[in-house]
């Protein structure tokens, strides 16, 4: 057939296995355009840098959680699952980089089937793990008795079930991705759906992916984090209005404005990527604080805000980085449904590679996000890579306070005062869930 390479991202081949016969196939990882050799080298360099950083960062996160018992919390077990998924996804990078250099697929039919399967499964496990984290945080912060019903072992079992379910659902990917040989002795790894006059396998596959992999976990994320934000913000009234001392006369030399602690909470306190510093000037006074939150409770609420901040930013990053590859995959399906006589294909392999590279970058961003924003992970990474002697923070939470570069724990006297205080009301209990 003439002008086989009129579009360097589509090749004409004969499919006898699925019954399509002669048709054009999208090349995915390959692109046969020698004029773009410079761009291929740039792509490979970016792929290799992403691979090295991703392996180092995710292995470090795995070591932190697996090596130190203090880090084995429910949330951190899910973070461990995210790191394993990112690591597995990153292991496919050398295959993609090698194919960009060689252009033609030279790694065999089995590799062609396994690599896309790993990429699909890793991405779906990532979203469902984030959904499980949101469910656990919701129980811990919103639902009485404000305690996680999961143990670290149960979180591990739940993570394993996610892997098993996702691996089973996407087994057809190993059947539909395979080598295609073109008339010009070119070989590509392409997705070929079975041909059927009664069932459109491509539509069924897309519907399952969109519902199971995207809409359902994203719906759970939106619902639970909306409830979490609403609960945290609802503590504002109990936290701020009660912080006004009954009478300024009780504290000589201080005005009412000065005796009000800096306790107001807003959305910016949740979303900004740095911890809020709270004033403790009045924490040692004898002034009456009817219905106010104790300093211990403020510390707990601050920890909750920091944990939710990290997790929410992680969700935003994941959705932003996986959205392009999802859109491109749908467009590839739409573009590939053309008749052989209609050659106005608009997609190229470089579009797919760019979207894939963005998704692969998430394997670097996730561990860096924990390492930068989470105090416990930051201290743990310092112990691993810098050989510094530093004790982990409160093992019950992935993030805690820091003052003057030193780790800070609540004092024993503060804990004793908290134990002697009256029972917390509903708004107070919301901040008492151990993270």
UniProtKB/TrEMBL annotation:
Give a yes or no for keyword Transmembrane in this entry.
yes
The question of whether Transmembrane helix is a record keyword is answered with: yes
One cellular component (GO) term of this entry: plasma membrane
Q: Which residues form the G-protein coupled receptors family 1 profile domain?
A: 57-370
One MF term in the entry's GO annotations: neuropeptide Y receptor activity
Which InterPro entries does the UniProt record give?
A: GPCR_Rhodpsn (IPR000276), GPCR_Rhodpsn_7TM (IPR017452), NPY_rcpt (IPR000611)
Query: Its domain of life?
Result: Eukaryota
User: What membrane topology does the UniProt entry give?
Assistant: Multi-pass membrane protein
Which compartment or compartments is the protein found in? Answer: Membrane
Q: What is its main location?
A: membrane
Composition bias of kind Basic and acidic residues appears in 416-435
What are the transmembrane regions? 38-66, 78-97, 117-135, 156-178, 198-223, 310-332, 352-373
* Keywords tagged on the record: G-protein coupled receptor, Membrane, Receptor, Transducer, Transmembrane, Transmembrane helix
Disordered: annotated segments: 396-435
What protein family is recorded? Answer: Belongs to the G-protein coupled receptor 1 family.
Q: What name goes with this protein?
A: Free fatty acid receptor 4-like
Species name for this entry? Sitophilus oryzae (Rice weevil)
Name the gene behind this protein: LOC115881368
